Amino acid sequence: MTDGTHDHHRLLLAGLALLVVALSVASVLIGYAPLDLGAAVLDLLAGRASLPALVLAELRIPRAVLGAAVGFSLGVTGAALQGLMRNPIADPGIVGVSGAAALGAVVAFYFGFSAAFALALPLGGLIGAGIATVFLLSVARSGADTATLILAGVAINALAGALTALALNLAPSPYAALEVVFWLMGSLADRSLVHVALALPFMVLGWALVLSSARAMDALTLGEDAAHSLGFSLKRVRLVVVGGTAAAVGASVAVAGAIGFVGLVVPHLMRPLVGHRPGRLLLASGLAGAALTLGADIVVRLVPTRPELKLGVITAIIGAPFFLAMLRRLKVEGP
Amino acid sequence: MIVVAEGVEARRGAAAVVRGLSLAVRGGELLGLIGPNGAGKTSLLRALCGLDPLASGRIVFDGRTPAEIGRAAFGRTLAYLPQNGRIHWPMTVAHVIALGRLPHGAAVLDAAARRAMAAADVTHLAGRTTGTLSGGERARVLLARALAVEAPVLLADEPVAALDPYHQLQVMELLRANARAGAAVVAVLHDLTLAARFCDRLALMDQGALRALGTPAEVLAPAPVAAAYRVSIECGARGGEPFVIPWSRLDGPAGKEPTP
Q: Which of B51, B75, B108 is nearest residue A230 as measured by Cβ atoms?
């Protein structure tokens, strides 16, 4: 639109971006050890490997960057899948990649690779997500419709869930099982710049793919037949959205575990603010997802429990009641 | 623009739903596609849109196949109004109609979209969200969306199905005006009087095949209608315009022949 809604939308995006920046800074400032930020930044810039500089570079910054990136991934892919399926209860987890990524990481745990070297965990997650993605894309390339594609995701999730349960069942010790369960709850604690370097390229690729489908998302408002008649290839859109989601969410789960409800709830929050236009919802949901995840990760560190609460627990505790309230409203308004 | 279908055959699973059908539609013409339920009217429209692959035959637009035209350009060549079209998110009417401009770039409410909105008599609804519209309003909004493409070919599947008589006449006038303005318009219709009054030519389909093709007077004769629909019809004219009333089922007990 050339009228006021365009300015309104820019204002919304700018506001959300500012919020993400502010929460990122807050995330860097908050931690368990006191940090002289000024000294840390100066040392870091001067190349001095002082303790404050190490805390900043190795703990605080990776955590903030991953919080924003994981949240953006969940928000933008949730909006894209809801648009692709024209179904407001779709969630990035539905394509099965998060289950597969979790399984990959659990396998790395189970066979002791993660004890041998720390990065086995995210690498296992990425490999799991990669295998699921290749399978999904081959289904999409064969010309399957959206429902079939989602059912393939459900099947991947079921299989990955079963194998994860098997690993827990056969875990050598209760301690190992507990470790896996904790990891599955999702957390951003103790992630390093290496985790960022591993995951971010896949996430950025996924964002670019998903955001490129904005016009097709708008066209899909009228259904797949009308979208086709407007010049969009549904097969291509499915490949781009499912491939992008798999890359971004697979990488997210590989480094942070499963963080639920962000991808489901955030698009609902943003939809009224973008006039329910699915193309515009993408970027807004990405930014709001980043803000929500950063906020939840700050809450995790402010709540005085030790060991710290898992991020996935907080997002679910915030998300589930919120979602229930939304369902009530949906029922009242009705289609 | 001239759209030519040659020996088109379309299948749904193993069943042939369009069988060896050939016809041509020219710019400036409103062609009514009529026939009983399951005759293959929607399947033919879907084949014309390129939604379903052809089992055999070909369809060309000014001599070029959709593949030769290219996907994006084909979106500007042909506008399609599906039967019972849905609007999946509660956007404003203005935003829905702007979607018709996507093949030309972005979904913006430009002059073409505003023309379409005015033509379909929905300008006053522009700020409403689609969830608040009546069935008739929604149908006209979707028609305006299709008109906003300003494509040289317009395919409308049962465009008057949800409408009251006033809006049925309005939409038929609109389709005819669109044809007069140069578009090749194909509309699937069940109301034989609307078909007779507004269409330049009619194509009568039955069991996937073309049973009759010609002027309304030629096609809506008792014999072809009886063969395809299994009903008798009463025909007349008022002020030089024909009307056609389905009267009785030919193979059923209901309906009495009218007294002369």
A: B75
Task: Select the more confidently predicted residue: A169 or B125.
Answer: B125
Query: A48: Cβ–Cβ under 8 A, 6 or more apart, which residues?
Result: none
Residues A127-154, mean pLDDT to the nearest whole number: 85
Q: Which residue has the tokens 């594609």?
A: A149
Ramachandran bin of B230, using left for φ above 0, alpha for ψ from -120 to 50, beta for the remaining angles:
left
Whole-prediction pTM = 0.90
pLDDT band at A174 (very low <50, low <70, confident <90, very high): confident
Whether A143 and chain B come into contact, CB under 8 Å, resolves to no
Q: Does B90 touch chain A (CB under 8 A)?
A: yes
Say yes or no to pLDDT of A333 above 50.
Answer: no
A-facing residues of B in 16-75 (CB < 8 A) are 46, 49-51, 71-75
Q: Which of A134, A75, A78 is nearest to A290 (CA)?
A: A75
Q: In this complex, which of A1, A225, A233 lies closest to B80 when CB atoms are compared?
A: A225
* C-beta of residue A221 within 8 angstroms of C-beta of residue B92: no
Which amino acid is present at A304? P
Q: Which two tokens stand for residue B103?
A: 């093949």
Residues 6+ apart with CB under 8 A from A171: A110, A177, A180
Distance CA B58, CA B56 (A): 7
Tokens at residue B61, please? 């637009």
Largest CA distance in chain A: 64
Closest CB to B90: pick one of A1, A231, A276: A276
pLDDT tens-digit map of B72-108? 999 999 999 998 888 999 999 999 999 999 999 988 9
In the block, tokens 């779709």 appear at A90
Residues in A 259-298 with any Cβ partner in B closer than 8 A:
271, 275-279
Q: Do the Cβ atoms of A230 and B109 come within 8 Å?
A: no
Q: Which of A221, A225, A333 sits opposite B91 (nearest CB)?
A: A221
Q: Do B91 and A277 touch (CB under 8 A)?
A: yes
CA distance A29 to A24: 9
Rounded to a whole number, what is the distance in Å from the CA of A238 to chain B's nearest CA?
16
**What ipTM was predicted for this assembly?**
0.90
* pLDDT at residue A107 in the model: 87
Q: What is the pLDDT of residue A2?
A: 44
Q: How far apart are CA A67 and CA A158, in angstroms?
A: 27
A6 touches chain B (CB under 8 A): no
